[in-house]
Design goal:
- With about 325 residues, the protein is of the alpha+beta class.
- About 60% of the residues lie in helices and about 10% in strands.
- Strand 1 and strand 2 form a beta hairpin.
- About 35% of the residues are buried.
- Helix 8 packs antiparallel against helix 9.
- A four-stranded mixed β-sheet has the order 5-6-8-7, with helices on one face. Strands 1-2 form a two-stranded antiparallel ribbon.
- The protein starts with 14 loop residues before the first strand and ends with a helix.
- It has three domains: about 40 residues; about 70 residues, Translation Initiation Factor IF3, CATH 3.30.110; about 190 residues, Phosphate transport system protein phou homolog 2, domain 2 (Methane Monooxygenase Hydroxylase, Chain G, domain 1, Up-down Bundle).
């Protein structure tokens, strides 16, 4: 660092130039250390309680993956991770030539993501580009889409157990992939807001809001995972549960979803109260299953635990939104 380029905030006084223009000077050494010079474009953004100066035009974020150093499964996960981290272009490269297995792994990852497609392909590399316009879908809208998937998934999973409907259980499990796609999109939005204040401006989401939406999306993704686990019980049980167990499970599952939906609706106090009320009822059903035993008691115990986790995640959503409101005060 140049001795003339202080590594920290630079205080300057706004000057009036020509009677109609305000100007702010920037120390030469400080600017040069940050690749700012004559002709450099600067954008000034209002951000929360301050102004932020961003240098240079918007540019695409690119990531390159060396397929020769990665197995097919790891390559697939790396493509997803690069997307979630905000990359606009992802290149999978192999100087020795992409084999069929790794090419399939990369293209398979593309089908699991929102708004991307294969833009170019040769023997040695495959290029994936994002088609997303950040102004079209906000983190809040993506979370709403997740809600529209997750709540019905959970309800249908419990119905599959009570009715012993293996086809419905299979349908629930298949929808988990759609939840994963939307969660990856929320991750992408979150990391882009963290990395570039201009993205926050375009998405109309501050960092606290982006963090909150990310946390809520994570809790919804976990609820979807528990719905899938309940659906697995339906697929594995030897027969439908007794009416006493089935009716009780269905009622408590509805109560757990009530915690979640109240939290998502902004009724945080009601959500936390409902979570406290349902906990002892779930404990009672769990003890009943343990005492009664039976061929499928352990399966229904797993379903009860997933319902419990749904209620807990609903409470976590309420707590996350409570922090967001505190930050807005």
């Amino acid at each position: 660092m140049s001795p003339h380029a202080p590594d920290g905030p630079v205080e300057r006084t706004v000057q009036l130039t020509g009677g109609s223009t305000f100007t702010v000077s920037i120390p030469k050494g400080w600017a040069q250390e940050r690749d700012i010079g004559p002709g450099t474009g600067l954008s000034i953004y209002p951000f929360e309680d301050r102004l932020v100066v961003a240098a240079g035009p918007d540019g695409d974020r690119a990531a390159t993956l060396d397929a020769d150093r990665l197995g097919a499964d790891v390559l697939r996960r790396r493509v997803r991770a690069a997307y979630a981290a905000g990359a606009d272009e992802i290149t999978v490269r192999s100087p020795t030539g992409l084999g069929a297995e790794k090419r399939r792994a990369a293209t398979s990852a593309v089908t699991e993501l929102v708004g991307v497609q294969v833009a170019g392909e040769t023997d040695a590399e495959l290029t994936v580009r994002s088609l997303l316009d950040s102004t079209e879908v906000s983190p809040a809208e993506t979370v709403d889409q997740l809600r529209g998937l997750v709540v019905p998934m959970h309800r249908e999973a419990v119905e599959a157990v009570v009715a012993d409907d293996a086809a419905l259980a299979e349908h629930v499990a298949a929808r988990d992939d759609d939840v994963d796609r939307l969660f990856a999109l929320v991750c992408r939005q979150f990391y882009r807001v963290l990395g570039d204040v201009r993205e926050a401006d375009r998405l109309e989401a501050g960092r606290l809001e982006a963090l909150t939406r990310f946390r809520v999306a994570r809790y919804l993704e976990r609820v979807a995972d528990h719905a899938e686990r309940v659906a697995d019980v339906a697929a594995r049980q030897p027969a439908a549960p007794s009416p006493a167990v089935g009716d009780r499970l269905k009622k408590l599952a509805a109560g757990a979803r009530g915690v979640l939906t109240a939290a998502l609706d902004g009724e945080t106090t009601a959500a936390l109260e409902r979570r406290a009320e349902i906990r002892p009822e779930l404990d009672a059903l769990d003890r009943r299953l343990y005492d009664d035993g039976g061929e499928a008691a352990y399966l229904y115990g797993r379903a009860v635990e997933s319902v419990r986790r749904t209620a807990e995640n609903g409470g976590n959503v309420a707590e996350a939104y409570s922090l967001l409101r505190v930050g807005d005060d």
